[in-house]
Amino acid sequence: MAGRKLVVVSDLHVDRWQKESKFEQFEDFLLYVRREAHTLVVNGDVLDLPPIEGEEVSASSKRALLALLQAPLQGVRLVYVVGNHDIAFRGWPIDLRPFVRIVYPFEVVDLGGRRIRIEHGHYYDPLFNGGYDILAGIRKFLNYDVGKVAVDTWKAATRFLQRLAPETGRSAVGRADEPAIFGRWKDAAIRLKEAGFDLVLFGHIHSPKGPDDEPSFYVNTGDWVDHTTVTEVDESGRPTQFEWRERGYRS
């Protein structure tokens, strides 16, 4: 029987997991979700960049994805908020309430009298917006979709670097857990607070920020590459955040 919590994770990038322990932690976490949560929200980027042409999603990645998809079969609603690495899922007509939904660009949840906005957060990243604006301008000028060439080149370079150092292939945005990194997202959260949201959850930058740090109404849902960040909201609308690898469940 499902519990009463809303649980949120983001930036899983399961195809970058190298250690068996990470898969075991994730399966342990999903057991917790099935027993304690009514809804699991994956706040974007379940996979890394798409595989290079000719490759398939690895067997280990399939293992994690299949485990994730078991949640609705156990009575937990699964909501997927599309991120930037999986932006091709925008507009997919998947709305199998109350079991599975794919949403874009954000999800709104009312819980405990609080209005909660869950969004991946890439639109506040100048690296994301600036790059796409440049590609759109070139495409308009040349009447050719250079975006495909750019994406393929970026994929190849990223895969090469990740193979050299698979555990440290992070983007420039999420390279360190420094307070300064939250600036743009804090500003966005303040604007959304003024627009009527009581709690704002972003991901994307891979750096966790819990409600104990000001402003308390902004939470960053971290990642499952360098962290195992879990954010949950209880039935009264109160958020908490912790590292799964420090907590565990079966043990």
From TrEMBL:
Gene3D superfamilies: 3.60.21.10. The keyword Membrane applies. Residues 5-208 form the Calcineurin-like phosphoesterase domain. Keywords: Cell inner membrane, Cell membrane, Manganese, Membrane, Metal-binding. Pfam families: Metallophos. The keyword Metal-binding applies. InterPro entries: Calcineurin-like_PHP, LpxH-like, Metallo-depent_PP-like. This is Metallophosphoesterase.
